Amino acid sequence: MMKNLEVFHRALKLLEATSKISSVSVRRLNAWGQDGTIKSPYKNIEIPNCTLYEYIWQNLDKWPERTVSVTVMLPNIPDFPLVALGILEAGGVISTINPVYTPHEIQRQLLLSEAKAVVTICETVNTVKEAIKLAKLNIPIIAVKTNGESVPQDIVSFHELTEDVHIDKSCLKEVRRSIDDICFLPYSSGTTGLPKGVQLLILSAIKNVNNLIDKQLNYITTHQDAVMTVLPLFHIYGASVLMFHKMSQGIKLVTVAKFQPETLLDALEKYKTNVLFVAPPLVIMMATHPASSPKKFQYLETIVNGAAPLSETDAERFFTKSERKLDFRQGYGLTETSPVVALTPRGMDNYGCVGYPIPSTNLKIVNSEMKTLGANEKGELLVKGPQVMRGYKDNAVADKETFTEDGWFRTGDLAIADHTGVITISDRLKELIKVKGFQVPPAELEAVLREHPDVSEAAVIGVPHPRKGESPKAFVVLKSNSNTSAKEISEFVEKKVAPYKKINDIMFIDSIPKSSAGKILRRILKEKYC
Hints:
Elements: H1 2-17, E1 38-39, H2 52-56, E2 69-71, H3 79-89, H4 103-113, E3 118-121, H5 125-135, E4 141-144, E5 156-157, H6 158-163, E6 182-184, E7 187-188, E8 196-201, H7 202-212, E9 226-229, H8 236-248, E10 252-255, H9 261-270, E11 275-278, H10 280-288, E12 302-305, H11 312-322, E13 327-333, E14 340-343, E15 356-357, E16 362-366, E17 379-384, E18 391-392, H12 396-402, E19 409-417, E20 423-428, E21 433-435, E22 438-440, H13 442-450, E23 455-465, E24 469-478, H14 486-494, E25 505-508, H15 522-529
Helix pairs in contact: 1-3, 4-5, 7-8, 10-11
C-alpha cells in the first residue's frame, strides 16, 4: 500500500506537469471556568509538527501485518483512503463530493473549489463529465474500477497510475507542507445559505484525530479491532473520525456503501465488529428492524452517535433489542470544527447529552446580545480551539457572520450546560435541514425551485420525519395563470438534486412571509402551517 501511495503521488504530479485523557471518574469532572467559559476538563494534548499523511503512518511499524480495510459493498471502497492519502502526500487539498450528487450540484463545487482533477468510480464518470461541461472546465477525470469494469478510453485509470512502475520521476520535486497549510476542503452551508468551502488546516485535522486517541476512544490492543464504516467517507464525520483516526490506530475499516439493513446487520456479525459509529437513523433501524437480534450485536462493545442528536428513548430502545447495555457515547461537532467539539466520557449514562469539550477546546453559551450565560441557561454555543476552520474559502462576508470579533466560532446551535459543564444540544438557530444526518440548506432548494418557469417565489423548511429525522417541505408561489402541479415541481427538483434532498411535500400559498430586509421568515411558515 505504501508503494501505491508513492506512485499515486507521482502520478498526480505528472498530471499537473502535463494528551492522554486523565483517568478521572465522571462525577469529579467540572468544566466551568471562573469567567463563564466552559473549558475542557482534560489535559491538553501536544500536537506533533508533521503533515496529516505522516501522522497517519507514524505507528505503521507496530502493526505491519494488519488489514487496513475490507469491503462489504461499494462505493465506500478500500481505495478511498488510498486516494485521500495520496492527494495529501502529493501536497494537494482534498475536496470530497457526495457520489449521488447531480451534475448541477457537482459543477458548482468544482468551480468554488477550483478543482484540478476529479477521482471517481466508473459508474459516475458520465455524471462528472456532464458537470465539467456545465462548469466549462478542462480537467482530468481519474476512475477507480470497482467491479472489474473497463475504464472509458478518454478517462485516466487509477489502477494503471498506481501500478505503473515505469513512471518517470525526473520531473518530481519534494513537496513541502506545514501544519498551517490547508489540507481538506469539505463543503458546508454554515448557519444559512448555500454550501461554502470549509478550509481545514493540517493542524485542525491532526488536532481532531489526536484528541480521539485517549483513554476513551483508544483501541490500541493486542488484537485488531474492527470498525463498521457505514457512514460515508466523503462526509467529515466519516473522513476524520473513522478514516483518519482509525487508520492511525491500526484498526480495520469494514466499509459499507449503502444503508441496507440486512447487509449491515449480517456484516456486524460476520466481521465481528466491536466498534460502531452511527447517526440517529441507524440506531433507530437497529432498534426496530425485524432482522435485528442480540446475535447480530454479539461482538459490539462501543457505539458512538454523531451527525445529529439521538434521544435517550431511542438509545434505550436499542439496548432493549440488544439485550445488554453497551458502552454508548454521543459526540457533537460540525464540518467547520474538523468535526469533534464535545464527547461523552465512558460510563456517562446521560444519553441525551454530548458530554464535555475535548482537550484544548473552550466553549461558551451566549444570548442574542452575545452576553455569556451560566449553568442551565439556554443560548447559542460558541467554540474556540485549534480544530476550528481557518474560514470559508473566498467568502469574507460569511466569515464575518460566523466569527465574533474576539475569534469565537458561532455554531448556530442552541445548547445548555449543567453545573459541571456537561453540554446538551437542545435546538438549532440555523435553518439547515438534517436529513439522515446530511445537511440540506433551504436556500439551495429554494434556488432550484425558482428555476422552474412557473414558480415565482419559494421557501423551504424542515419538518419532522419518523425515519429521516427531518424532511424538506416547500412553500411555493406560482406565477399568474399557472396550473403546474406539485408533482411536476417535485419531479423538476428531483432531477437537479441528490436523492436525500428530494421534496415530496409541496404547498402552494399566495405569498412568502419576509422581513423588512427581504429575508424569508421560515419561523412564521413553521408556526402557521406545521
